[in-house]
Specification:
By secondary structure, the protein is mainly alpha-helical. Helices cover 70% and strands 0% of the residues. It has helices at residues 2-10, 12-56, 58-64, 66-70, 105-109, 124-143, 147-169, 174-187, 196-221, 228-241, 246-266, 279-303. Helix 2 crosses helix 7 and helix 6 packs antiparallel against helix 7. The protein is globular and about 65 Å long.
Length: 304
């Protein structure tokens, strides 16, 4: 293992190439998480609601019909998770051949269409794979073959999944954010990205800062300006990077979010009353802080 790390350390471009190829494969699985995890969560919520009605309001359950409530809320098979069933075309339900599942290349080979029914395949699938490959390549260049690279890559894959789910569902699942939060705190016990004290303060400050903004906005307007998942995601970056990076993450995410929101309203692609997910902007800002945060802070302080 040490010999392999030595070779990769002296051949950075080889390491970057291998990282891109590996990341694009993982990006294919990230697509699965983006699509399937919300379905799994909705099924779990339905089951919990049914159990609550059966225990506390059996008369309502009888009126509504137990069989109807137990029906799946989606067209997918009864056994449905991140592994099963294998990938199929959403239109004709024919299995996708393994070579058509090759990251990026498979979509290009099919020219963006199902091999069986010729239905269009969303370009988002190869785009997620490409983004994963590019982001991990940047991490490979920045961190080199190291433990920091491995952990930063894991965080990056999770952020891509969170971004896709939030764009689709306006939801940042606890199944991803909470493990990331605890992992960041555990890693920084050994000072991987920040000191343990800075990480602990960062996790608390990240959560409480947006939590405070949420309640202030709600008291002033009577409306909810953001979701609890946003608090947890900012807490994740506090736990991973320390409290010192939180102002940069908040500033960058707010700036980009405002610019995108205004541009969508000006181009009439978004009504002012429609909400937009804030999670993708926090994720992007946090990733930038992960790679270039200290450089940005040092540059800013030098200009004062």
């Amino acid at each position: 293992m040490s010999e392999i790390l030595s070779v990769l350390s002296h051949n950075l471009w080889l390491f970057i190439l291998i990282s891109f190829m590996f990341a694009s494969v993982i990006g294919s699985f990230v697509n699965v998480v983006i699509h399937r995890l919300p379905v799994m969560m909705k099924r779990q919520w339905q089951q919990e609601c049914n159990q609550y009605l059966a225990e506390y309001h059996p008369e309502q359950l009888q009126q509504l019909g137990a069989e109807k409530l137990n029906e799946a809320i989606d067209p997918y098979p009864a056994k449905y998770n991140l592994i099963f069933p294998s990938s199929t075309c959403p239109k004709c339900h024919n299995p996708i051949k393994p070579w058509h599942n090759l990251p990026i290349i498979g979509w290009l080979m099919l020219q963006g269409k199902c091999a069986s029914c010729q239905s269009p395949i969303s370009p988002r699938y190869p785009l997620v794979e490409l983004i994963a490959g590019l982001l991990i390549s940047v991490l490979a260049w920045h961190f080199g073959p190291s433990g920091q690279f491995l952990f930063a890559s894991l965080l990056t894959f999770a952020l891509i999944a969170l971004t896709g789910i939030d764009l689709d569902e306006m939801l940042l699942p606890d199944q991803i954010t909470l493990p990331l939060l605890w992992l960041g705190l555990m890693l920084n016990l050994q000072g991987q990205f920040a000191t343990a004290t800075d990480a602990l303060i960062g996790a608390a400050a990240g959560y409480l800062s947006l939590w405070s903004v949420f309640w202030l906005f709600k008291l002033l307007t009577g409306k909810e300006g953001m979701g609890y998942g946003d608090f947890k995601l900012l807490a994740v970056f506090g736990a991973w990077l320390g409290w010192q990076m939180l102002p940069l993450v908040i500033l960058l995410s707010s700036l980009v979010g405002a610019l995108v929101g205004i541009s969508l309203i000006v181009t009439k692609r978004l009504d002012q009353s429609n909400p937009i997910p804030f999670g993708p902007y926090i994720a992007a800002a946090g990733w930038i802080a992960l790679v270039w945060g200290q450089d940005i802070v040092d540059w800013y302080l030098a200009t004062l």
